[in-house]
Design brief:
With 436 residues, the protein is mostly beta strands. It contains 2 helices and 32 strands. The chain has a domain of 133 residues: Lipocalin (Beta Barrel), CATH 2.40.128.
Length: 436
């Protein structure tokens, strides 16, 4: 595979420190007002973290994004992304943010684009050097998705055998930059994947490898560590999520041969249920009283666990969504396995409602928007089908580029997709805005 273009040096619209210090008080007041508006938009529409504003892969109920597109149809704009990454686009008000990395210079960066035009607004390098000697061919050095809390952007990176957590302003200025903890796998040197999780003024980071693993929470304003919970010394790649389930907020993570719940305010374990696999990548999903998770490696399993503290497994089957997350909608679980088989199960009983061979291998996770489910293959083919438990109904099949691992963002009746193409002079990533 051809190398991606290098990340450019810091330049252009990003303010220098000297310029930044000369900003007038009036301008800073204007920025505060802008951020307040962005926070309000976030609550209604924006795609502010991995798997969207609710962390479950479900877009706002009023969204009606396009179901058909091509290079010449329903493309609002297309812009080149420097470097390489698998992080999903994060949408905040009038901006789109993602991470990228350049293997040649071993640099990692956060990049911001204008939502209306696709123009690059700023690029902030956050690390230089220390890339691991090995990484899985399907992973990158910029895989975790940026999270936004209405004031700050949070990005995590792996280098120098640590997890770096950095907070930035929406203008790209670094607020704080810390070493969250160690990450130094010895057995499976596949890289790092978990996205940072935001919860009530904290930024939460997971690190699971064959060493001193942990989940940690940091104060969003300062980066101060608030709590740390040990995890089994087991290599896994799932992003933790906070779900309102069984009447309370619970921090859920799958992997290490279990589905486990913690109190997100202090990191104390609430319950654990044996199941899925030692390693998995997908983020757990949930309904009112049940958590659903799938894995993995070395075995294949999908489980439904009652989240009332009993750890009771309601049902399980032998299907495997290792890299992909699943979806829960109207009493049913929708999943697309590693092998490209789409399933619909009754959420309460696990009864199979239908299954069909849908596609080739996919690493992107499905998204529900406008009553349809969107799932993209590693070759850039997006299949759209109805979220209907009675039968499988294919709506459309669309092609962009020839590679796609990132999960798109859906908001404002638009889709923001990170796509790569290896045609022409070499591999190049693009950010697309798709809309009617």
């Amino acid at each position: 595979m051809c190398a991606s273009p290098k990340l450019p040096p810091l330049s252009g619209p990003q303010l220098s420190l000297e310029q930044d210090m000369k900003l007038s008080r009036l301008k800073w007041i204007s920025v505060v007002v802008l951020l307040a508006g962005a926070a309000q938009a976030w609550a209604k529409d924006d795609w502010t973290a991995w798997r969207g504003p609710n962390g479950n892969g479900v877009a706002a109920v009023d969204q009606q994004p396009p179901t058909e597109w091509s290079e010449s149809k329903n493309v609002v704009w297309k812009t080149a992304i420097p470097g390489r990454g698998h992080s999903s686009p994060t949408v905040l008000a009038d901006r789109i943010v993602l991470t990228s990395a350049d293997t040649g210079s071993q640099s990692q960066a956060v990049i911001c684009f204008d939502r209306k035009t696709g123009k690059q607004l700023w690029l902030t390098r956050v690390s230089q050097g220390g890339f691991p000697g090995e990484i899985h061919r399907n992973n990158t050095h910029a895989t975790p998705t940026v999270a936004f809390d209405g004031e700050r952007l949070f990005a995590s990176f792996y280098h120098n055998e640590i997890v770096q957590l950095v907070a930035l302003t929406p203008e790209g200025k670094i607020v704080w930059d810390i070493k969250a903890g160690a990450y130094a796998p010895k057995s499976y040197k596949y890289g790092y994947a978990p996205s940072p999780l935001l919860y009530k003024g904290t930024a939460i980071v997971a690190s699971e490898f064959d060493g001193p693993s942990y989940i940690k929470a940091f104060e969003a304003k300062s980066g101060k560590e608030l709590w740390s919970t040990p995890r089994p010394s087991n290599i896994s790649y799932s992003s933790p999520i906070v779900a309102k389930v069984a009447g309370r907020d619970q921090l859920i993570i799958s992997g290490a041969d279990a589905v486990t719940s913690f109190d997100p305010t202090n990191g104390k374990k609430l319950w654990s249920a044996n199941g899925i696999a030692a390693a998995t990548c997908g983020t757990a999903v949930w309904n009112e009283d049940t958590v659903f998770a799938s894995g993995g490696y070395p075995k294949s399993e999908t489980v439904a666990v009652k989240a009332d503290g009993s750890g009771r497994v309601a049902w399980r089957n032998g299907q495997k969504c290792y890299e992909q997350s699943m979806l829960v909608h109207n009493g049913h679980v929708y999943a697309v396995t590693d092998g490209g088989i789409a399933y619909c199960w009754d959420a309460q009983t696990g009864e199979e409602k239908w299954k069909t061979r849908l596609c080739t291998k996919c690493s992107s996770s499905p998204i529900l928007a406008g009553g349809n489910i969107y799932i993209t293959t590693e070759k850039g083919v997006t299949n759209v089908f109805k979220a209907d438990p009675t039968k499988f109904q294919l709506v459309a099949t669309n092609q962009l580029g020839d590679e796609m691992f990132s999960t798109p963002a859906f908001c404002g009746q638009q889709i923001f997709a990170r796509v790569a193409s290896s045609q022409g002079k070499g591999r190049q990533e693009f950010l697309y805005c798709l809309g009617k």
